[in-house]
Write a structure and sequence with these properties.
Elements lengths: L5 E3 L1 E2 L7 H6 L2 E7 L7 E6 H11 L5 E5 L2 E12 L6 E7 L7 E10 L7 E4 L3 E6 L8 E4 L9 E3 L10 E2 L6 E6 L1 H25 L7 H6 L5
Parallel strand pairs: 1-5, 3-7, 8-11
Antiparallel strand pairs: 2-4, 3-4, 5-6, 6-7, 8-10, 9-14, 10-13, 12-14
Length: 223
Protein backbone atom coordinates (compact mmCIF):
# COMPACT_ATOMS: atom_id res chain seq x y z
CA UNK A 1 0.00 0.00 0.00
CA UNK A 2 1.34 3.41 -0.93
CA UNK A 3 2.07 5.47 2.18
CA UNK A 4 -0.06 8.56 2.54
CA UNK A 5 -2.38 7.76 -0.40
CA UNK A 6 -5.71 8.99 0.95
CA UNK A 7 -8.99 9.85 -0.73
CA UNK A 8 -11.67 11.67 1.23
CA UNK A 9 -15.32 10.67 0.92
CA UNK A 10 -18.65 11.62 2.47
CA UNK A 11 -21.34 9.15 3.60
CA UNK A 12 -24.57 9.54 1.65
CA UNK A 13 -28.16 8.42 1.97
CA UNK A 14 -29.22 9.68 -1.47
CA UNK A 15 -29.64 6.73 -3.85
CA UNK A 16 -31.35 5.82 -7.11
CA UNK A 17 -32.52 8.55 -9.44
CA UNK A 18 -31.94 11.25 -6.82
CA UNK A 19 -28.15 10.97 -7.27
CA UNK A 20 -28.54 13.33 -10.25
CA UNK A 21 -28.65 16.10 -7.69
CA UNK A 22 -25.28 15.05 -6.30
CA UNK A 23 -23.72 15.18 -9.75
CA UNK A 24 -25.09 18.68 -10.32
CA UNK A 25 -23.35 19.68 -7.08
CA UNK A 26 -20.01 18.39 -8.36
CA UNK A 27 -20.06 15.10 -6.47
CA UNK A 28 -19.67 11.54 -7.72
CA UNK A 29 -21.71 8.82 -5.99
CA UNK A 30 -19.93 5.62 -5.08
CA UNK A 31 -20.21 2.44 -3.05
CA UNK A 32 -17.72 0.54 -0.88
CA UNK A 33 -18.12 -3.24 -1.00
CA UNK A 34 -16.03 -6.36 -0.59
CA UNK A 35 -15.33 -9.39 1.60
CA UNK A 36 -14.37 -7.32 4.65
CA UNK A 37 -17.41 -5.01 4.47
CA UNK A 38 -20.47 -6.53 6.13
CA UNK A 39 -22.81 -3.96 4.60
CA UNK A 40 -22.16 -1.85 1.51
CA UNK A 41 -21.30 1.76 2.36
CA UNK A 42 -22.74 4.47 0.13
CA UNK A 43 -20.41 7.45 -0.26
CA UNK A 44 -19.74 10.39 -2.55
CA UNK A 45 -16.47 12.05 -3.57
CA UNK A 46 -15.64 15.46 -4.97
CA UNK A 47 -15.55 15.09 -8.76
CA UNK A 48 -12.52 17.31 -9.42
CA UNK A 49 -10.53 15.74 -6.59
CA UNK A 50 -11.45 12.24 -7.73
CA UNK A 51 -10.55 12.87 -11.39
CA UNK A 52 -7.11 14.16 -10.38
CA UNK A 53 -6.64 11.33 -7.90
CA UNK A 54 -7.67 8.62 -10.38
CA UNK A 55 -5.38 10.00 -13.06
CA UNK A 56 -2.42 9.83 -10.66
CA UNK A 57 -3.17 6.52 -8.93
CA UNK A 58 -5.25 4.43 -11.34
CA UNK A 59 -7.07 1.26 -10.36
CA UNK A 60 -4.26 -0.97 -9.11
CA UNK A 61 -3.11 1.07 -6.10
CA UNK A 62 -4.45 0.32 -2.64
CA UNK A 63 -5.57 3.61 -1.11
CA UNK A 64 -7.17 4.62 2.15
CA UNK A 65 -10.73 5.82 1.57
CA UNK A 66 -11.66 7.93 4.58
CA UNK A 67 -14.95 9.44 5.66
CA UNK A 68 -16.39 10.76 8.92
CA UNK A 69 -16.83 7.71 11.10
CA UNK A 70 -14.85 5.27 9.01
CA UNK A 71 -11.97 4.40 6.70
CA UNK A 72 -11.11 1.42 4.56
CA UNK A 73 -8.22 0.27 2.32
CA UNK A 74 -9.73 -0.01 -1.17
CA UNK A 75 -9.06 -0.40 -4.86
CA UNK A 76 -10.93 1.65 -7.44
CA UNK A 77 -12.61 -1.36 -9.07
CA UNK A 78 -14.81 0.39 -11.65
CA UNK A 79 -15.56 3.93 -12.80
CA UNK A 80 -18.66 4.48 -14.92
CA UNK A 81 -18.07 7.31 -17.40
CA UNK A 82 -20.54 9.50 -19.26
CA UNK A 83 -19.96 8.68 -22.95
CA UNK A 84 -20.49 12.30 -24.02
CA UNK A 85 -18.94 14.47 -21.30
CA UNK A 86 -16.45 11.83 -20.09
CA UNK A 87 -17.31 12.82 -16.52
CA UNK A 88 -17.38 10.04 -13.89
CA UNK A 89 -20.91 8.94 -13.02
CA UNK A 90 -20.28 6.34 -10.34
CA UNK A 91 -17.34 4.69 -8.59
CA UNK A 92 -17.09 1.16 -7.19
CA UNK A 93 -14.56 0.94 -4.35
CA UNK A 94 -13.54 -2.67 -3.65
CA UNK A 95 -12.40 -3.43 -0.09
CA UNK A 96 -10.19 -6.56 -0.25
CA UNK A 97 -9.02 -8.85 2.50
CA UNK A 98 -5.48 -7.52 2.94
CA UNK A 99 -4.18 -10.97 3.99
CA UNK A 100 -5.48 -12.82 0.89
CA UNK A 101 -3.78 -12.87 -2.52
CA UNK A 102 -5.72 -10.81 -5.05
CA UNK A 103 -5.80 -11.07 -8.85
CA UNK A 104 -5.65 -7.67 -10.53
CA UNK A 105 -4.88 -6.01 -13.87
CA UNK A 106 -1.96 -3.56 -13.67
CA UNK A 107 -1.12 -0.92 -16.31
CA UNK A 108 1.96 -1.36 -18.49
CA UNK A 109 3.95 1.81 -19.23
CA UNK A 110 6.50 1.83 -22.08
CA UNK A 111 9.69 3.85 -21.60
CA UNK A 112 12.80 4.89 -23.55
CA UNK A 113 11.72 4.47 -27.18
CA UNK A 114 14.75 4.50 -29.53
CA UNK A 115 15.10 5.55 -33.14
CA UNK A 116 13.63 2.58 -34.95
CA UNK A 117 12.35 1.19 -38.21
CA UNK A 118 8.65 0.77 -38.94
CA UNK A 119 5.97 1.65 -36.41
CA UNK A 120 5.71 0.75 -32.74
CA UNK A 121 2.56 -1.32 -32.23
CA UNK A 122 1.30 -1.68 -28.66
CA UNK A 123 -0.63 -4.93 -28.26
CA UNK A 124 -1.28 -5.05 -24.51
CA UNK A 125 -1.58 -2.17 -22.06
CA UNK A 126 -2.20 -4.22 -18.89
CA UNK A 127 -0.83 -7.31 -17.22
CA UNK A 128 -2.85 -9.61 -14.98
CA UNK A 129 -0.99 -10.41 -11.77
CA UNK A 130 -1.54 -11.94 -8.34
CA UNK A 131 -0.23 -10.48 -5.09
CA UNK A 132 -1.27 -9.46 -1.64
CA UNK A 133 -3.16 -6.17 -1.97
CA UNK A 134 -0.35 -4.26 -0.25
CA UNK A 135 2.17 -5.63 -2.79
CA UNK A 136 0.25 -4.72 -5.94
CA UNK A 137 2.39 -2.46 -8.15
CA UNK A 138 0.99 0.86 -9.30
CA UNK A 139 2.24 0.07 -12.81
CA UNK A 140 4.79 -2.09 -14.64
CA UNK A 141 7.54 -0.13 -16.41
CA UNK A 142 8.92 -1.63 -19.62
CA UNK A 143 12.15 -0.49 -21.29
CA UNK A 144 11.65 -0.58 -25.07
CA UNK A 145 15.02 0.92 -26.04
CA UNK A 146 15.97 -2.44 -27.55
CA UNK A 147 13.26 -2.25 -30.21
CA UNK A 148 15.05 -0.92 -33.30
CA UNK A 149 14.22 -3.14 -36.31
CA UNK A 150 10.93 -4.38 -37.78
CA UNK A 151 10.15 -7.69 -36.10
CA UNK A 152 11.69 -6.77 -32.74
CA UNK A 153 9.22 -7.47 -29.94
CA UNK A 154 8.76 -7.53 -26.18
CA UNK A 155 6.74 -10.29 -24.53
CA UNK A 156 5.43 -10.70 -21.01
CA UNK A 157 8.31 -13.09 -20.38
CA UNK A 158 10.60 -10.03 -20.66
CA UNK A 159 8.94 -8.27 -17.72
CA UNK A 160 10.77 -7.90 -14.43
CA UNK A 161 8.13 -8.21 -11.71
CA UNK A 162 8.47 -6.90 -8.17
CA UNK A 163 9.01 -9.42 -5.38
CA UNK A 164 5.90 -11.32 -4.25
CA UNK A 165 4.06 -10.56 -7.51
CA UNK A 166 3.08 -13.44 -9.83
CA UNK A 167 2.29 -13.01 -13.52
CA UNK A 168 -1.03 -14.56 -14.60
CA UNK A 169 -1.03 -13.35 -18.21
CA UNK A 170 0.68 -15.89 -20.49
CA UNK A 171 4.42 -15.22 -20.66
CA UNK A 172 4.29 -15.86 -24.42
CA UNK A 173 1.81 -13.03 -25.07
CA UNK A 174 3.08 -9.98 -26.92
CA UNK A 175 3.31 -6.54 -25.30
CA UNK A 176 4.69 -4.45 -28.18
CA UNK A 177 6.54 -4.88 -31.45
CA UNK A 178 7.86 -3.00 -34.47
CA UNK A 179 5.78 -3.59 -37.59
CA UNK A 180 5.89 -2.26 -41.16
CA UNK A 181 3.96 0.97 -41.63
CA UNK A 182 1.38 -0.62 -43.95
CA UNK A 183 0.50 -3.23 -41.33
CA UNK A 184 0.02 -0.55 -38.66
CA UNK A 185 -2.28 1.50 -40.89
CA UNK A 186 -4.47 -1.55 -41.49
CA UNK A 187 -4.62 -2.27 -37.76
CA UNK A 188 -5.59 1.34 -36.98
CA UNK A 189 -8.40 1.23 -39.56
CA UNK A 190 -9.74 -1.96 -38.00
CA UNK A 191 -9.58 -0.48 -34.48
CA UNK A 192 -11.42 2.66 -35.64
CA UNK A 193 -14.20 0.55 -37.15
CA UNK A 194 -14.54 -1.50 -33.96
CA UNK A 195 -14.61 1.69 -31.86
CA UNK A 196 -17.47 3.13 -33.94
CA UNK A 197 -19.46 -0.07 -33.48
CA UNK A 198 -18.77 -0.04 -29.74
CA UNK A 199 -19.86 3.58 -29.33
CA UNK A 200 -23.14 2.78 -31.03
CA UNK A 201 -23.81 -0.12 -28.69
CA UNK A 202 -22.79 1.94 -25.65
CA UNK A 203 -25.16 4.72 -26.58
CA UNK A 204 -28.08 2.30 -26.73
CA UNK A 205 -27.24 0.71 -23.39
CA UNK A 206 -26.44 3.88 -21.42
CA UNK A 207 -29.04 4.84 -18.80
CA UNK A 208 -30.26 8.43 -18.88
CA UNK A 209 -27.48 10.35 -17.07
CA UNK A 210 -26.44 7.05 -15.44
CA UNK A 211 -29.29 7.34 -12.97
CA UNK A 212 -29.46 3.61 -12.31
CA UNK A 213 -25.72 3.11 -11.86
CA UNK A 214 -25.95 3.44 -8.09
CA UNK A 215 -28.68 0.83 -7.76
CA UNK A 216 -26.86 -1.63 -10.02
CA UNK A 217 -23.58 -1.36 -8.11
CA UNK A 218 -25.15 -1.68 -4.68
CA UNK A 219 -26.93 -4.88 -5.66
CA UNK A 220 -23.69 -6.51 -6.87
CA UNK A 221 -22.70 -9.71 -5.12
CA UNK A 222 -19.83 -9.33 -2.72
CA UNK A 223 -16.56 -10.66 -4.00
Amino acid sequence: MSDGVILRATPRDIVGKKVKRLRREGLVPGVVYGPVVSNNVSVSVNRREFEKFYQQNGHSTIVSLEWDGGKQPVLIREVQIDPVTRAPLHVDFFAPNMTVVLRQFVPIVLHNPADHEGVLQTVQTEAEVEALPSNLPHQLDVDISGLVAVGDAIHFSDLTLPDNVTLITSAEDLIASLVPEAAEEAAEAEEAEEAEEGEGAEGEAEDADGEDADEVSESRDKE
